[in-house]
Structures are given as structure tokens and as C-alpha cells.
Amino acid sequence: MVGLTYLFGWFVVLNLYDVNKAVAEENPVTFTFKEYQYKDSPKNEMTFREFETACEQSSACSHITGLQRTRC
Q1: What keywords are annotated for this sequence in UniProt (predicted)?
Q2: In a 3-state reduction of DSSP, which class is residue 26?
């Protein structure tokens, strides 16, 4: 009897998972982020160059072709 209850519980859980997955695929969520104006300063420029250099030296995006520039 306990085994039957256990199996029935898993059946319910898996069906609920499938229903939630289907609903999530039907209603995609669009995220919007507030944009702030860039303030030009030597510190910001130095930080940007550090990130840009690290990205160029990283192999994470090296396999992607057809892009003029990649952002990490």
C-alpha cells in the first residue's frame, strides 16, 4: 500500500511538472532593465579596458564566428 501511494505521489509530481513546463513555454517573460547614461571618467575607462582585455584573452567566445566583436 505504501509503495502504491509513493508511485501515485510521483505520478502527480511529474504531471504537475509537465503542466508548469508547458505553461512557462507558452508565456515567455520579457525582461527590461533601466538604462543609465555612461559617465566618462578615467576610472570608468580603465575598468572598461581591463574587462575588454580580459575578454579578448579569454577562450570562452573564441569558437563563435561571424561576429565583429564579442562581449563577455
Answers
A1: Signal
A2: helix
Cα 6 from Cα 28, distance rounded (Å) = 33
C-alpha cell of residue 38: 555612461
pLDDT of the residue at 22: 60
**DSSP line for 10-24:** HHHHHHHHHHHHHHH
Whether the Cβ atoms of residue 72 and residue 61 lie closer than 8 Å to each other: yes
CA 11 from chain center: how many Å? 30
Count the Cβ atoms, other than its own, within 10 Å of residue 52: 13
Q: What are the C-alpha distances in Å from 35 to residues 32, 38, 41, 43?
A: 9, 9, 18, 20
Residue 14, by phi and psi: left (phi above 0), alpha (psi -120 to 50) or beta?
alpha
- Cell numbers for 24, please give them: 512557462
